[in-house]
Amino acid sequence: MSINNQLDCLPDMAVFARVVDCGSFSGAARQLGLTPSAVSRQIARLEGVLRVQLLVRTTRKLSLTEAGNAAYLRCQDMVAAAREVLALSDTHTATPRGLVRVSMPKAFGRLVVHPLMPAFLRQYPEVDVQLIITDRTVDLFEEGIDLAICITETPPLGLAGRPLLRIRHMVCASPAYLAAHGTPTHPRDLAQHSCLYLGENALDRHWRFGRAGEEISVKVSGRYVANHSEVRLEGALQALGIASLPEFTAQASLAAGTLVPVLADWQHLTHYAGTAWLLYPPNRFLAAKLRVWIDYLVAGLAT
Asked: What CATH class has 169-269?
């Protein structure tokens, strides 16, 4: 039997199960909104396809044949499975519930996303959240991750994406450091200062700046190098030097006055800057738990 013929039989199987449940053609017809003759034709069509008699019809009652009993048990399972499929609508679109697994860079997760999560968990008591804090590139499909945040100007192909916010980098230092060593007025002055830089490759020592069409690169040096922005932040707060930091890492310290921007009239150019993108597998029917998490994050970052 072809797959098309198999699929054509599914409504007849559902009607057959309903007839057995009701014990009569007329009872099933009333529940299904059909005429008894229409129900009878569907049962006859199913028997014709299966080439077996399913029901013995007398004036008083319907009885299942041996083949009919076997078919009824399987048709019952089919109807139950259909109900479970339809129940996915409630599970995945109506009430947000279940686990949301999200990958994101370390500093961004700690300083930007994590502060928003307590209020989210209170608002959605049936949604659990797992933050996967890592700077490596994850495979959503292989690792069973629902969403990923990455900082890039070119989101990968094959994923749906939503831009969250621009990530700017800046250089800053503590007032104590600048009082002791002076404040740079031009990027070239940084060569005479102790700088806190990333240090993952040789290019990390070359800080680039742009202003009004001018671009300049200066090679920096320093006694303390760290590939984590919160460590560089702490180093800057301890007056160990001038740090290159994502703006969101320095924001609280800038607001408190424990750090001050350096060369604020220049744009700090780095390939670690860009747009924070929220990425997820393309799917027209996002589960409710994912939709509310995405909407909550977007709204939180907007404020």
From this structure: alpha beta
